[in-house]
Amino acid sequence: MSPEKQRIAIAKACGWTAKRDSNGWWRAVHKLTGNAMAARLSERSVWSVGIPDYLNDLNAMHEAEQVLTPKYEPAKGESQWGEYLGWLGFCGENKTREVYECVTATAAQRAQAFLRTLGLWQETPTQPQ
Question: What global pTM score does this model have?
Answer without folding.
Answer: 0.75
